[in-house]
């Protein structure tokens, strides 16, 4: 009976681990597919503790994307992009340099 409980517990742990894996699928969409897109510039803030790649908007504000690496775009400092995003109020970041957002669509402006 004790062995059965161990196997059941192991199976349950395995189910939780595999179901919690993040989808790392690369996504590419065209600007025409982006709803409410805005222009921005990629900025490399990896030199600051807890920070990474961020996007500077035209008004000077910065947004901190949670899923930028899921998109098929080369991360290059000062690259102009057009993108759509939603605010993510469920996550607290330690960078504290901008609003945390989830990118829904991104387009490299240098390819146009």
UniProtKB/TrEMBL annotation:
**Keywords assigned:** Signal
Q: What is this protein called?
A: Lipoprotein
What is this organism's lineage? Bacteria, Pseudomonadati, Bacteroidota, Flavobacteriia, Flavobacteriales
The signal sequence is 1-24
